[in-house]
Amino acid sequence: MRQWFTRRFANKDTRKVFLTILGGKLLGVGILISVIKAVDWYFFSSAIAEEAAKVPDHINALNTMWTLVAAFLVFFMQAGFMCLEAGFARTRETVNILLEGIVDTCLCGILFWAFGFAFMFGAGNKFIGLQYFFLHGTPETYGATGVPMLAYWLFQFAFADTCSTITSGAMVGRTGFVGDILYSIGVSGFIYPIFGHWAWGPDGWLNTLSTPFHDFAGSTVVHTIGGFVALAGAMALGPRLGRKFKRDGGGMPPGHDMTIAAVGGVILWFGWYGFNPGSTLSAMDAAGCARVAANTTLAACSGGLTAMAYIYPRNRVWDCGITVNGFLAGLVAITCPCYWVSPTGALIIGAVAGVVVVLGVDLLEWLRIDDPIGAVPVHGFCGVWGTLSLGLFATGQFGAPTPTGADTSATALVSGLFYGGGWAQLKAQCIGNFSILAAVFAASLVLMYAVKAMGYLRISEEGELEGIDKHEHGGPAYPELMGSVFGAPQAAPKEAAQSHMSVAQTATSKA
What we know:
By secondary structure, the protein is mainly α.
């Protein structure tokens, strides 16, 4: 080896190339060190840096960054939703799911800037906000949090986007793309912000109850709303062609990629650490953030394990899909009470949610409502359970969060039935959840059937049999599988149509 190097360096051209490369690297290192020194001098040593580093006294930089990081985490949940829905769906509707998630996010951002935020968080009356349209006239910070209003807007936009995306899960495989756009406008621009104002608006009527309604991070405002909009959409659409329900001798068709679905579920779990702890809007509430994060984790764990164990005796297999929906059910349920319950309470709440989600899937199957992803049981039914659970498990130790910690004054404490608080909080939770549920479901039925009447809600039978990706978007997500049993099943249309007709005939005869 030594002789080889000696021979190589005996060559003049080799030495020249080596010295050129070495000199270039040394020059680059020197430039980099100079840049670092210059940045250090300018930003950390000069009077200019001292002036630039000043933050207005009314803005809390720590809370602002905490809120922004939480907003980024919640936004990343869109990737989780797209993976989860795509994995649980069939190959021929994957592109539709991905594009719907992207376009829905873009629409929601514009709508929430223009008037959604105003309807939800502007002062107005007990039912709708009437200020801050196009974010005009907003104060510099959100209340006493020290968080700039634009940071708070970004955080709440991510929540609104989550609610609208939930809806698509029950409508997979047969919703026309124009229909997707129309109902997304209705949900992001009107349904979510207007009914959300009732609970989270500064003058919402649920805040003025003798015992106020509480929903810390949105079991009702985000998940119940999203879940019951999804239910209205699934009812208006009807089932996918060829969908045979359990009572008719069939069952839920398997998803095409459980790897994507499971990873998507875990991404959602990760994003929930922005959803729940981030809703403190305060990194200075260290104890509250830690309590919320721990409760979120325990509820998810118990929800996943309980759902897996509950379904096992039925078919004697360890079901991955229901386990994923089980931990998501636990996350949905703990979203409302996470600030006010103990770790033991969180464990119980998640475990009950794991059973609720299975029973919810069974109920929809019995009602012949086609929900390919399980959006209604996970978000709708478990959102109801999570909201009511606050009235049972709130420990009575904490009130509403403040910029520096929980309000522990006697009049502010939130107490549930099992901790000596009586029925008052449970009653308030029932009033808040069921009033929003009923109003949202009614409005959603009107929205979905209006889009259906315009002819945009569902694609044609030919388009659905061809595959929505090819029919609506020009091609499949997996072109190399076209012609295989996984891609575009050429023999499937007749079988699917016959199966669809037999289901319809069975339903008619039973009716």
